[in-house]
Design brief:
Barwin-like endoglucanases; six-stranded mixed β-barrel; 430 residues; binds 2-acetamido-2-deoxy-beta-D-glucopyranose; Expansin-like EG45 domain-containing protein; 5 helices; Expansin
Amino acid sequence: MRGLYMAAALAALLCTGRAAAQADAPLIQGESGGWRQGRATFYGGPERFLQNFPDRGPPPEYGFGDALFGSCGYTQQNYTEGVTYDNVPFPKESLAALANVDVDFPGSCGRCYEVRCKNGLVLANGTQIFNTTQGYSLPAHAPNATDDYGRHWLGNPTEDLQEQSVLCWNQSSLFVVVTDNCPCIQTDPNTGAVTGTNSPCCGNIYHMDLSYWGFEQLAHPLNGIMMTEFRPVSCDTHQPLQFNPGFINSTIYGDKVETGWAWFPYKQNTDNFWLPGAGIGGSNATCIELGPKAGGLTFASRKAAQSGYQPFGQASAVEFWLKDKNGSSTIPDITVGAGNYDDKKYCSSLKTSSLTPVQRQGIYAQFSIPISSFQCPFDKSQITQVGFQNADGQLVSFCLDDIKIVGSGGSGGQVSASSVQTGRRLKTAA
Ligand SMILES: *[C@@H]1O[C@H](CO)[C@@H](O)[C@H](O)[C@H]1NC(C)=O
Ligand SMILES: *[C@@H]1O[C@H](CO)[C@@H](O)[C@H](O)[C@H]1NC(C)=O
Ligand SMILES: *[C@@H]1O[C@H](CO)[C@@H](O)[C@H](O)[C@H]1NC(C)=O
Ligand SMILES: *[C@@H]1O[C@H](CO)[C@@H](O)[C@H](O)[C@H]1NC(C)=O
Ligand SMILES: *[C@@H]1O[C@H](CO)[C@@H](O)[C@H](O)[C@H]1NC(C)=O
Ligand SMILES: *[C@@H]1O[C@H](CO)[C@@H](O)[C@H](O)[C@H]1NC(C)=O
Ligand SMILES: *[C@@H]1O[C@H](CO)[C@@H](O)[C@H](O)[C@H]1NC(C)=O
Ligand SMILES: *[C@@H]1O[C@H](CO)[C@@H](O)[C@H](O)[C@H]1NC(C)=O
């Protein structure tokens, strides 16, 4: 989980102890391409920089949080060595966490955004200007701290007014992918105890936490917070996508986990987010080895049961390709289940040994499971996860590829420049 960056700084200004409602991020007038106003802080960072602020928290995070493990899963484990950024399948400057109250938060795992820095005053919330004297100011503690390129802070032109202004390096774009979330109230995942407040993520302004390495591409990290301009884009083509409702791909796994989907291996011996050449026709597949006791791989779209999203709303079936990772031609016997991720509600699951593949290709078998077979005790519009688990109490090692929702699934879609400009909502992609 991300940590507490800027918690101290903004607590006095913003936090009422509960997430406030948030309006759509406003479109920027006179701009084409759907650019919207937002704000960003950062999390994570190199110890070299963070150790300038020991009074914020203990090393190695110094209260800035950790970008290595995000709440969307994604970090591939390597049990040979410790987990480093080599285990994260995206460049560390591209990691981002959306505030849970952002209007397009549902299904945001794996969604990509184009972000650029906006020069000038930083807003504390929708109407107030960020006050430099209230809370923890990074420049007050280490004004000479350099970024990873040896650059010094450009200063705050409105410091005398106690207002924080940011001087961007430039207006170049940074492309980020959501791998984490930024909750207003931070709790311990095991005990549920409140461990802190991420007040910038509490509402009023569209907020995104960038990794330290992404933030420093846009402005000096000593700023700590900046106004941004952003828009959702296709991860593949960088073409703008519809903003609200945000895009969820009806393909859950293509050559990678597609937009909208978290990837959660559990109790695994090994896992691969994307294993080149292991997929159907030599593409990427996602693979896992599960010990005899239990374990599985879950794909989930967080908060996506709400109206406008509902990736299974019109679904007729779930389709996927399955093979033994070790090369045996025997189709692994695993269970496939569906459910609602946020409410922890589950449908029935089925064993692949009870199903007939719709086709075979090499050692791969394709299955197509009608949604009705899951016999969900709730409407299919509330399904937000699919899971693949160890069925037989034996060691099992398998790869999955081209996991798709058949029928109309996913939400949002690609937009033309003109419709982005006016903010028109597009029909849900079929
Ligand atoms: C913004 O914060 C100020 C206090 O700093 C508060 O008076 C004001 O109501 C807040 N505005 C909104 C829209 O919440
Ligand atoms: C794990 O780390 C070891 C040592 O660096 C490396 O040889 C191995 O390929 C890694 N395994 C995976 C799955 O990345
Ligand atoms: C900033 O906060 C200080 C301390 O609360 C206050 O005296 C000052 O008026 C504030 N300045 C602005 C510009 O809001
Ligand atoms: C920062 O650098 C300036 C000039 O290089 C120096 O005068 C000042 O003492 C330094 N401040 C701190 C806190 O190190
Ligand atoms: C903008 O700043 C970034 C980060 O310093 C730099 O990598 C990039 O080359 C700059 N872009 C332009 C167009 O100057
Ligand atoms: C959705 O997934 C498909 C299949 O992997 C991929 O080709 C397509 O680019 C994705 N769409 C977007 C907008 O990411
Ligand atoms: C396939 O996986 C590799 C990493 O193993 C990754 O670099 C590549 O981008 C993936 N291909 C696609 C099309 O996503
Ligand atoms: C697959 O191969 C690995 C490494 O060769 C081995 O450790 C594992 O036991 C095998 N798994 C199965 C299910 O055969």
